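Case study 2.
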Amino acid sequence: MASSTLIVDYSWSGTTAQMAVDLQQVTGADKVNLTVAQGTFPPDMFATADVASQQLSSGNLPTLTNGLPDFSHYQTLLVGGPVWSGKVATPVRSFLQQLGAFRGLVAPFYTDAGNPGGYEDDFEQLITQGTFVMGLGMTAGDLPRDQQVLRGWWRNFQN
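Prediction:
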C-alpha cells in the first residue's frame, strides 16, 4: 500500500535534503526532490538571495524541472525548503502554486541559518486549499540530533 504522506523538498545547499532524508526514515513517506534548471541560482548564498529577490519582485518564479505525482493519492504533504530572507524559497513557491485543489494537510519543514523570520506566515499565505499545519525549522547544527526532533513533530500527524 502506498504512503498517504508525501515529502517534497528543495535544497540549495544540501541541508534541507538531509533533513528530508531523515524525515523519510522517520515517516516511511514517499519523497520527491524539487529541481530547477542548472544555473538558475549561483553557488554564492548572497548572490542567490539577490536572484530570489528579483524572482519575487517580478513574479517570475523558477520552473521546476522534475515531474510531480498525483497529489490526490496523499492526505498529508510535508514540504521542505531553505529559508531565504525570511521567506519561502522560490522553487518551493513554484511547487505550492501547483497544488491546485489539494485539500489535505500541508506542513512546512525548513532549514535556516538561525533566524527563520516570517517563514511560516509566508508559507501559510501560499496554501490556498489545503489545511496548514505548523512546521518545523532546523539549522545545519541541529541535524546531528534531528531524528528525535523529527519523531516528535511527526507524532502531531498521527491519528
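Residues 45-58 form the longest helix (14 residues).
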